[in-house]
């Protein structure tokens, strides 16, 4: 199996995509891009990455950024805890490492929000350390190459693959090796459909291809069923704008701004009663299209209403605490509410 590394790296140099974070062997660019790329497609990440590094070109800028502005720059990428953790890590780097991102896997792993995959990416791509990046793409490639039936959802399996890949990767090009494995999984050895085995540089080394068992790998247990939660979204508006509120700490999407929303599915009559309890005196209540949003372990099923009132001034009570009027250029609205975002002003 060790013989596949030169073939793989040669293929990578000929076929790698032109990406804005490549060729800039900066630890910062690698860090930002890898965090953004978690559960987000490459093409979708490109404009976010360029906008982010233009405004926050280094660790110092990230550490000093206003939290609301930081969330606005991240708006649309989801998983906002990731960028909050990045800022915490950036503050640690400025105070403990004089603004220089650590150059070892072990030191990187101690930073807030940096797991094994991201630590390995930075250490190998930016600093040349032999550390294997093992994500879903890489696991799929490796399990097919080796006809390994183990369950890839198990942490012990992932660690074993890390060890084996670190033995195979060339000491002189660990970053290229890692990126080549990722690229092969993204472009050739794809999930959810037929892999492009005829174009694969490793087909003569791939046991699953040679034995016609590609469709059997990788093996994994079924994902746990998501919890489902019904919510009613209320777009509260007067002539001046739309009321939003900041989500509290310790909940999903904490620290982000949202339209007022209530657990359960309310009828129009129940919304009217809620508005009167809140002292809103609606001029009009308009039913809006239903929507849903899927998080990793949770699904929101949403009904929605637009409530027009004479004024939102001075309205703050247990029903509608700490409201502010929306300014799109200032506040990040999570993609969970994308179906209603265009109605917010």
Give me the Rg, rounded. 24 Å
Structural class determined from secondary elements: alpha+beta
Helix content: 40-55%
Q: Segments where pLDDT lies below 50 for 5+ residues?
A: none
Q: What count of domains describes the coordinates?
A: 2
Under CATH, the topology of the largest domain can be stated as: Endonuclease III, domain 1
Query: What is the N-to-C order of secondary-structure elements (H for helix, E for strand)?
Result: HHHHHHHHHHHHEEEHEEEH
Oligomer: single chain
SSE layout:
Elements: H1 4-15, H2 27-37, H3 42-55, H4 59-64, H5 67-74, H6 81-96, H7 105-109, H8 116-127, H9 136-146, H10 155-168, H11 174-187, H12 207-210, E1 227-238, E2 241-246, E3 257-263, H13 268-277, E4 282-294, E5 298-309, E6 323-325, H14 338-341
Parallel strand pairs: 1-5
Antiparallel strand pairs: 1-2, 1-3, 2-3, 2-6, 4-5
Structure description:
- With 345 residues, this protein is of the alpha+beta class.
- The chain folds into 2 domains: 4-216, Hypothetical protein, domain 2 (Endonuclease III, domain 1), CATH 1.10.340.30; 227-341, Alpha-Beta Complex (Nucleoside Triphosphate Pyrophosphohydrolase).
- Helix content is 41%, strand content 15%.
- It contains 14 helices and 6 strands.
- The protein has helices at residues 4-15, 27-37, 42-55, 59-64, 67-74, 81-96, 105-109, 116-127, 136-146, 155-168, 174-187, 207-210, 268-277, 338-341, and strands spanning 227-238, 241-246, 257-263, 282-294, 298-309, 323-325.
- Strands 1, 2, 3, 4, 5 and 6 form a 6-stranded mixed sheet that branches.
- α2 (27-37) crosses α3 (42-55).
- The protein is globular.
- The relative contact order is 0.11.
């Amino acid at each position: 199996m060790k013989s596949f590394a030169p073939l793989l790296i040669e293929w990578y140099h000929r076929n790698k995509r032109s990406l804005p974070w490549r060729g800039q062997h900066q630890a910062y660019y690698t860090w930002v891009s890898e965090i953004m790329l978690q559960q987000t497609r490459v093409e979708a990440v490109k404009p976010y990455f360029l906008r982010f590094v233009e405004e926050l070109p280094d660790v110092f800028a990230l550490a000093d950024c206003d939290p609301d502005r930081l969330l606005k720059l991240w708006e649309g990428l989801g998983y906002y805890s990731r960028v909050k953790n990045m800022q915490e890590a950036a503050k640690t780097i400025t105070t403990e490492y004089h603004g220089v991102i650590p150059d070892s896997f072990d030191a990187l792993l101690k930073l807030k929000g940096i797991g094994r995959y991201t630590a390995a990416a930075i250490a190998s791509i930016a600093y040349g350390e032999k550390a294997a990046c093992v994500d879903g793409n890489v696991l799929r490639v490796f399990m097919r190459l080796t006809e390994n039936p183990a369950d890839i959802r198990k942490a012990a399996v992932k660690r074993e693959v890390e060890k084996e890949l670190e033995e195979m990767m060339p000491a002189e090009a660990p970053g290229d090796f890692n990126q080549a494995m990722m690229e092969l999984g993204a472009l050739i050895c794809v999930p959810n459909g037929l892999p492009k085995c005829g174009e694969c540089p490793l087909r003569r080394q791939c046991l699953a291809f040679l034995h016609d068992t590609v469709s059997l790998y990788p093996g994994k247990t079924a994902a746990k069923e998501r919890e489902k939660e019904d919510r009613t979204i209320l777009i509260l508006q007067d002539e001046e704008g739309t009321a939003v509120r900041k989500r509290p700490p310790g909940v999903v999407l904490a620290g982000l701004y949202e339209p007022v929303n209530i657990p359960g599915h309310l009828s129009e009559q129940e919304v009217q009663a809620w508005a009167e309890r809140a002292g809103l005196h609606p001029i009009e209540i308009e039913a809006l299209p239903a929507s849903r949003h899927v998080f990793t372990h949770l699904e929101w099923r949403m009904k929605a209403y637009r409530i027009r009132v004479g004024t939102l001034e001075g309205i703050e009570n247990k029903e509608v605490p700490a409201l502010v009027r929306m300014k799109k250029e200032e506040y990040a609205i999570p993609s969970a509410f994308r179906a209603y975002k265009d109605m917010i002003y």
